[in-house]
Amino acid sequence: MAAVEKYNLKNPAVKRILQEVKEMQSSPSDDFMSLPLEENIFEWQFAIRGPRETEFEGGIYHGRIQLPAEYPFKPPSFMLLTPNGRFETQTKICLSISNHHPEHWQPSWSVRTALVALIAFMPTPPNGALGS
């Protein structure tokens, strides 16, 4: 992450994001991969595997996470870029872990927590939620 020098390393959001990057790199998951863009650590790209034993199994789904300047005290937004049959592409996803429901977000949650939740939400019925 060559662009880190341009950020205030005392900023709580920057410190937290860099901590999460380090954790993602040192403890990778078999179910997803995610890292921030080189030029903007507040924007992450991710790839998730479709949940096992569901209609999504075998698929790889690419998306984007936008972290707010107040992260982790405010929730991120999520967008899937790969057609998947569950969530609209190029549309912010309405989930309890997203910025559509900030009242549910917990600062102890992380990008990792959110991606695990997103994978778990994939096979659930949409019930009219935005982006679903």
From TrEMBL:
It holds the Pfam family UQ_con. PANTHER family: UBIQUITIN-CONJUGATING ENZYME E2. It is an enzyme of class 2 (transferase). Keywords: Acyltransferase, Transferase. InterPro entries: Ub_conjugating_enzyme, UBC, UBQ-conjugating_enzyme/RWD. This is E2 ubiquitin-conjugating enzyme. The keyword Cell cycle does not apply.
